[in-house]
Amino acid sequence: MDIILVPGFWLDASSWAEVTPPLVEAGHRVHPLTLPGLESVGAPRAGIGLRDHIDAVVAAIDTIDGPVVLVGHSGGGAIIHGGVDARPDQVLRAVYVDSGPLGAGAVINDGLSVEGDDIPLPPWDAFEAAELVDLTDDLRAAFRARAVPEPRRVASDLMQLQDERRYDVPATIISCEISSSLVTEWIAAGHPFVAELARLHDVEYVDLPTGHWPQFTRPAELGAAILAAVRRTV
Description:
CATH architecture: 3-Layer(aba) Sandwich
Number of domains: 1
Largest sheet: 6 strands, parallel
Helix content: 25-40%
Distance between the termini: 8 Å
Mean pLDDT: 97
CATH superfamily: Alpha/Beta hydrolase fold, catalytic domain
Order of helices and strands: EHEHEHEEHEHEHHEHH
Number of helices: 9
């Protein structure tokens, strides 16, 4: 199986390095992406928006002659949902790592501090305590050293979707900072935050208790969870 891995904000393809070994050992082909504007701190980010990141995922799908599994972390969850919408017949499963699908007309996060065309990684005290669970001082230092500013418009552009067949693509939600039981309670209560997720026809939930960056805090367990989701797909 071809597995396309989409990082969350401030991260590039290398952020998946400790997650992919069990996938490769199982014989799968992994395709971690570095999205436009995330190539380096000095890369140009002016004019890069959410659609550019979705288009990069779609281009990766189109280079593969066969079905794929999409994996998206954090803001990457919204981006892979755009890929599902664009190629619902080719995506066999979408795996959302501490994230979920974003509905039409919504934004990923327009509350982040902007500097010109950039959204730099905020200071740690800007995050909730639950997001930082298990992120040690050493991991924080390594994360900040590798962080690349996110293109401003990726966070604030409105999501555009067009193909309701996206709701037929099976999904796996890997819940880290927020438990799956709380997510399902929100769905039952009709919370707008999970409105798009509630429309999916086939969803499984997997709990991986840690903070918002399991690829750093629990990479082996995250790799195993993704592998299990892939095995349930093929």
